[in-house]
Design brief:
The structure holds 3 protein chains of 3 kinds. By secondary structure, chain A is of the alpha/beta class. Chain A is 27% helix and 23% strand. Chain A has helices at residues 37-49, 88-99, 117-123, 135-143, 160-164, and strands at residues 2-7, 10-14, 18-20, 32-36, 54-58, 76-81, 105-110, 127-130. In chain A, helix 2 (88-99) packs parallel to helix 3 (117-123). Chain A is globular, with a radius of gyration of 17 Å. Chain B has helices at 6-27, 33-41, 65-78, 101-110, 143-153, 226-240, 251-258, 260-274, 283-291, 306-314, 316-325, 353-366, 389-398, 429-438, 441-447, 506-523, 530-537, 540-547; strands at 45-47, 52-56, 62-64, 82-85, 91-93, 127-128, 168-171, 185-191, 197-203, 215-222, 326-328, 334-339, 350-352, 370-373, 379-385, 413-414, 452-455, 469-476, 479-486, 498-499, 504-505. In chain B, the strands form 4 sheets. In chain B, strands 16, 17, 18, 19, 20 and 21 form a 6-stranded mixed β-sheet that branches. The model of chain B has no long low-confidence stretch (mean pLDDT 96). Chain C has one domain. Chain C is built from 2 helices and 5 strands, in the order E-E-E-H-E-E-H. The chains are: A alpha/beta, B alpha+beta, C alpha+beta. The A-B interface holds A 60, 63, 84-88, 90-92, 94, 99, 113, 115-116, 118-123, 145-153, 160-161, 163-165 and B 5, 7-8, 10-11, 14-15, 17-18, 21-22, 35, 38-39, 121, 151-152, 154-162, 235, 238-239, 243, 273, 277-279, 281-282, 284-285, 288.
């Protein structure tokens, strides 16, 4: 499993500084961890107090509203795609970025279809767990395939409308 | 009509290149069928019984002669010389090759066309009134808003993996020719008390396994909030729509299960957050798009059309065509001309490449180069001088395109059915041709307006739920079998038909329809059309006649 | 019930049949049903399907192979389900199109 980070003008494979810990498993003494929403809600104080960053992963039927009041203390929110056809997390990511103003890492996990990456990026995801580590080249290519976007999202990409009106994203 | 600017062109061209790459990878075995299928569906390419099927988008059913000629050319060069116009105003080719589809898409891109999002769980072609911009009594041309919705919905990053497909229709007239009440979102343009133009927003209409008439969730939406409101509805649906059961995944079920009030509350709550955001279109952009839909330079003509009238007096065939196929136009001395793609004995909605070329030429000659596709699978020349109708008629007649049957019983809506479609349970086209062959023009005129709609399976692409007479093909122990329902309507008085009783074999269907028609003719009162008599009397007299009293 | 394997060609979507004589080592797809490999029982049918499915992934020439019931043999071989008969011949309302126009009979 490779973790790919989308960056300005490209992408890179990065090391994962978080460990995804199952619900019944003890947390490591230190270091970053990602836990389920249920566990976070049950052990919130302990998780926030321990040494190391904490992140939460949301199942596809868990909207981010549940985390709205604590987002500034979460280093990462991971949204699961149980099947690539389950597109609820696109809305969750947009809500995280645009409604709740979340500044941390939004990670796509689960059945991530390469061709969905541009949509994920535009929705606010910036890291992606992908099965095939050699997918990095494909990843980069896929991101640049369609140059024009119609819809404004939180990614700030200049839309066709903005170009028509002579407006461009501030550098 | 809308003309692409450099940005629209760039998107479509990039899309073609992207798909070409995806096809190459598939042909080389670098991606599996499972990985490729969603990609091919996002470009409207299905695998059917005999071959692939490509569904080309015709945005809100509007195209110009150049585009029609390209469709003719593609049919000739890459297919078998014909195409099928659909109930969503699109065109289907039945025999394209996967390996040639990128070339077909490149050809389409040359004339500002594509097959983007004509399949898949995304927002599909936004459809409209085929008389938009020509009809009398139109509040405003709805196609302006269809185009705005088209751009907003194209490759929308958040809404490309919805629970299920999503269909939007917009009309600018009270008389609904776009079946807005049986769409996921239907919008009717109207004026508020202050005279401002806006939209009534209707959600949750749909046919298929669980048909519903849509519910109004907002009586009046000001224009400036058009996109933000759509986005709010889609965002609620994307999160709430069922993902566990394909047959309960449409928004009509979400609305039904959540309840109209709660659903509306959720939409309004989301909308409140985004209504003043970047989705508000500046007037400049609305005006830019609206300018593409301004009226062509109509000549100043009187109401009288003496040439056409004289021809009516001496030619019964022309008179019938004039009577049934020509609708009233907003400009004096003009008419809206319907070209019937329902000649007796032929598959409804099909046109050969030669016929497409001819219709393109006729559009140039008679209608400012513009054509429309109707959801009833016919073609329209929207702006024809009434006194030139005889000329037009003669040219259409030569090509077998002058059937005077718009709105009559042989103007049947019919899906491709088991002759083509991998989803079908029974054939639909032979039922349509048998019905059309049974009735003379004279008999059809005696019957008057009668909308027969035929689907080859429960997916209801033939809109059988909203036919005055609806016919559904099913598989009954390995045999083709047909259920009949009556009393449906797709218009502003939308209603779902009532099943008559047990079904029939293929060779019984025409006799059953005959009995239904006989019953109507015997029982109708002054000036009642079929649907009026049904509404007055209900199912019973028809059931009795068809099944006998038990 | 006798069975055969039917599939679609990847490149052009046309109907093909796993051909008589196909083995795991040498898979052939035929255009006409008369040339199909016929399995007399479920075990044999399972093997044929397996050959088809492996080949779909190995050579990426066909997609969507599945088993259908047939009756008759040789030139009279035909599917028992009407839907599959239509797949073998072409649209019933356009006898000038599809395999029926290329000489197929069922």
């Amino acid at each position: 499993m490779a973790l790919i980070e989308r960056r300005e003008g490209g992408a890179a494979a990065i090391d994962d500084r978080f460990e995804r810990v199952e619900d019944e498993v003890a947390l490591p003494a230190s270091g970053g961890v990602i836990v389920s929403l249920a566990r976070f809600e049950a052990e919130r104080e302990a998780l926030l107090a321990r040494e190391g960053d904490v992140g939460v992963w949301l199942a596809s039927n868990e909207p981010p509203k549940a985390l709205a009041d604590v987002l500034d203390r979460l280093a990462v929110v991971a949204c699961d795609f149980p099947a690539f056809s389950d597109g609820r997390a696109f809305s969750y990511a947009r809500l995280l970025r645009e409604r709740y103003d979340y500044k941390g890492e939004i990670r796509a996990i689960g059945d991530v279809l390469l061709e969905q990456i541009p949509f994920m990026v535009r929705s606010g995801f910036n890291t992606f767990e992908i099965d095939d580590p050699t997918a990095l080249d494909e990843f980069r290519a896929v991101c640049d395939e369609v140059r024009v976007v119609y819809q404004p999202t939180g990614d700030g990409q200049t839309t066709a409308l903005q170009r028509r009106l002579g407006q461009h994203r501030a550098p | 009509m809308y003309r692409y600017d450099e940005h629209d062109h760039a998107l479509v061209q990039d899309r073609v290149a992207q798909f070409r790459r995806q096809v190459e990878r598939r042909m080389a075995g670098e991606i599996t069928e499972e990985q490729f299928r969603p990609l091919r569906l996002m470009n409207g390419l299905y695998l059917q019984l005999h071959a692939y099927m490509l569904r080309v988008a015709i945005p809100y059913g509007t195209l110009d002669s150049r585009q029609m000629r390209k469709l003719a050319y593609i049919g000739r060069r890459y297919d078998k010389g014909y195409g099928h116009f659909t109930t969503r105003q699109n065109l289907q080719y039945n025999w394209p090759k996967l390996e040639e589809t990128p070339d077909i898409l490149a050809e389409l891109a040359e004339v500002e066309m594509h097959a983007i999002q004509t399949s898949g769980n995304c927002i599909r072609n936004v459809t409209s009134d085929q008389y938009a911009g020509a009809a009398k009594g139109e509040i405003e041309d709805p196609r302006i808003w269809c185009e705005i919705a088209r751009q907003w919905s194209t490759l929308h990053p958040e809404f490309s993996f919805l629970p299920r497909k999503f269909k939007i229709a917009i009309t600018g007239c009270e008389k609904d020719r776009a079946a807005v009440k049986v769409h996921d979102i239907g919008m009717i343009m109207k004026r508020d008390e202050a005279g401002e133009v806006g939209f009534e927003v209707i959600v949750g209409g749909g046919l298929g396994r669980t048909p519903f008439i849509g519910k109004t969730i907002r009586e009046f939406l000001p224009k400036e909030h058009f996109l933000s409101y759509l986005e709010a509805i889609l965002r609620v649906y994307n999160q709430l729509g069922r993902r566990d059961n394909k047959y309960k995944a449409r928004i009509k079920v979400t609305l039904h299960e959540t309840g109209v009030e709660e659903f509306t509350r959720l939409v309004e709550e989301e909308w409140a957050e985004i209504k003043d955001s970047t989705l508000k279109l500046p007037k400049e952009e609305v005006d830019r798009i609206a300018a593409h839909f301004s009226s062509p330079p109509f000549r100043v003509l009187g109401e009288e059309a003496r040439v056409a009238e004289a021809r009516c007096a001496e030619d019964a065939g022309f008179a019938a065509w004039r009577r049934h196929n020509i609708a009233e136009h907003k400009a004096s001395g003009y008419g809206i001309a319907n070209i019937s793609l329902k000649p007796v004995g032929e598959p409804p909605g099909d046109a050969t490449s030669d016929q497409m070329d001819l219709m393109a030429d006729l559009a140039d000659e008679f209608s400012f180069g513009e054509l429309r596709v109707t959801h009833t699978q016919n073609i329209v020349l929207p702006h024809v001088e009434l006194d030139r109708l005889p000329e037009l008629y003669d040219k259409l007649a030569e090509a077998g395109l002058a059937s005077p049957n718009i709105g009559l019983l042989s103007d049947i809506i019919c899906c491709p059915g088991l002759d083509y479609c991998a989803l079908a349970n029974a054939r639909s086209i032979p039922i349509a041709t048998q019905l059309a062959e049974r009735y003379t023009q004279e008999r059809q005129e005696e019957v008057g307006e009668l909308q027969i709609k035929i689907s080859g399976c429960i997916n209801a692409c033939g809109h059988h739920h909203v036919g005055h007479i609806g016919i559904l093909g099913v598989d009954r122990r390995g045999e083709e079998h047909y259920q009949i329902q009556i009393g449906g309507s797709a218009s502003e008085d939308a209603a779902l038909g009532k099943i008559l009783g047990r079904g029939f074999s293929a060779d019984q269907v025409v006799d059953v329809v005959d009995k239904i028609i006989d019953t109507y003719l015997e029982l109708r009162e002054d000036g009642e059309e079929f649907i009026d008599t049904f509404r007055r009397l209900g199912n019973d007299p028809f059931k009795e006649r068809v099944y006998g009293t038990d | 019930m006798a069975q055969i394997v039917i599939a679609s060609r990847l490149g052009d979507g046309r109907v093909v049949f796993l051909a008589k004589g196909s083995t795991a080592g040498e898979v052939v797809w035929a255009a006409l049903i008369a040339d199909s490999a016929v399995a007399a029982d479920d075990a044999a049918a399972g093997e044929l399907l397996s050959i088809g499915e492996v080949d779909a992934n190995a050579r990426h020439l066909i997609v969507d192979p599945y088993l259908i019931d047939v009756e008759g043999d040789g030139e009279t071989l035909r599917p028992t389900k009407y839907r599959e008969v239509i797949r073998c011949l072409g649209p019933t309302i356009r006898l000038d199109l599809g395999k029926q126009a290329e000489g197929a009979e069922a």
